[in-house]
Amino acid sequence: MNIFLLFIIILLVVETILAHRGFSYENLGSFCKNNTPHGNPNLLPIETGLPRLIRNIENGSLYQIGIDDDQTWLIHVWGMNGYDYGFAYGTLLNEQINKFIPKTYAYFEKEVMEKLEHLQVPDWFKKIIANKGLAFALDLQNTLVEPYMDKEIYNELQGISDGAKIDYKLLLRIHMFGELTRAHCFYFGAWGKATLGGKTLQLRAFDWDMSADLQAYPVITIYHPRSSKLGHTFTNIAWAGYIGVLSGMSSTLLGMTSIGVEFPDDTFGDESMSGEPFIFVSRHILQYSQTVDDALAYISDVRRTCHLIMGIADGKLNTARMIQYSHSKVNFFDDLNLQPAAEWHPQITNVVYNGMDWLCPSYQYKLYQQIMEQYGHITPESTIQNISAVVKTGDVHVAVYDLSENILYLANGAASNKQGPKQAYQRQFNKLDLKIEYDRKQPSIDVVED
Ligand SMILES: *[C@@H]1O[C@H](CO)[C@@H](O)[C@H](O)[C@H]1NC(C)=O
Ligand SMILES: *[C@@H]1O[C@H](CO)[C@@H](O)[C@H](O)[C@H]1NC(C)=O
Known about the structure:
Elements: H1 2-26, H2 30-33, E1 52-57, E2 60-65, E3 72-79, H3 82-92, H4 94-114, H5 123-132, H6 134-145, H7 151-164, H8 168-174, E4 184-190, E5 201-207, E6 218-225, E7 234-239, E8 247-250, E9 254-260, H9 278-288, H10 292-301, E10 308-314, E11 319-325, E12 330-333, E13 351-356, H11 361-374, H12 380-391, E14 397-402, E15 407-412, E16 430-433, H13 434-439
Helix pairs in contact: 3-7, 4-8, 5-6, 6-8, 11-12
Bound molecules: 2-acetamido-2-deoxy-beta-D-glucopyranose (NAG) (2 copies).
């Protein structure tokens, strides 16, 4: 009798496990199902040369970092308002913006039209795109989000438009895409026992469609406010003309990551087309939050839009969080309650991490293994050499934030006309000491443009 009961219980348990696995695996795309990532370590030396000044204007300075095929623009802007920021940015990067934005818009438009069915937006919105065109739909989207936007963002876009002489509407539409297209990315935040010397480190590996060639125009922007209404100094890591935040760091020692979710489970809430777009939620955090707690409070209260995983690390409080993000629900995780709880995503003391997507067993587990291999002595160098390159994550860019020292390590993918490996995780990283960058002074007004 007892044995029979035990037998039934075992059957039920096995069935539950199988059903659960069946659910997780069968619903996943081929990307998450079969791939067992294993790449070679990245053995290239990190480039540490100082930024080279290209030119100064009244409210901005343009530099370049890196050598040969791995150069990145570094731009400083100063302002009393968003318009000052934008005008300096648009003036200095005029040429890059005019090459990048129209080409990128055309690429996205083609992609969206071809893959309309698979777009993660409501059917009514797909109908609008199909019937009225993408530009109309993106303008409508802007109308839906406008009440929740920081008005200085619009001023900044207007400044860029005037400085670079590029169509304002086109710039605005590019900034509405973030909600339609989802990037697959990797994140970890590690501190305390996990890292060498107990530093707070963050990996932000951005995987996306490399044929969009975003990586041809990489730009690091340092914003220097001259009025407290613009918050504090912060860094955005993006591309010419893009002012939303996908990756970045703040002078208050916060680091930001966001990861698109294609395979949520029922613990996620629903999505909405109206609210503050997540690229501007992330920017708000870098621009205004003092600590990770401020950031979480902002995320709790703001009107959120889509499914997402966010990662925020804090070099002052020496900790990091992972955020399960959606319109109706939000959950904050640390190392003790990290989700999803699964045998392929074990918890690690003093680490939060997420590989590729919410339900993505092979990549999640591979990231777990590489973190564990370096555990206790994780450094920016070991992350670059042995984690992102081996897990093969970060094709468009890989950023490693040392939030204890305020140093950024960044590699960009190779543009279509460049030599060598394509993916950022196999390219040369540049080291940028943000302490020096944040201290830079606005060029004196007499230094007029050349
Ligand atoms: C530079 O910024 C100041 C405010 O800080 C502003 O008054 C001035 O118009 C700006 N100059 C240009 C050329 O944008
Ligand atoms: C990467 O891993 C190898 C092998 O485990 C190790 O010898 C090397 O020191 C690691 N690299 C860094 C920068 O820690």
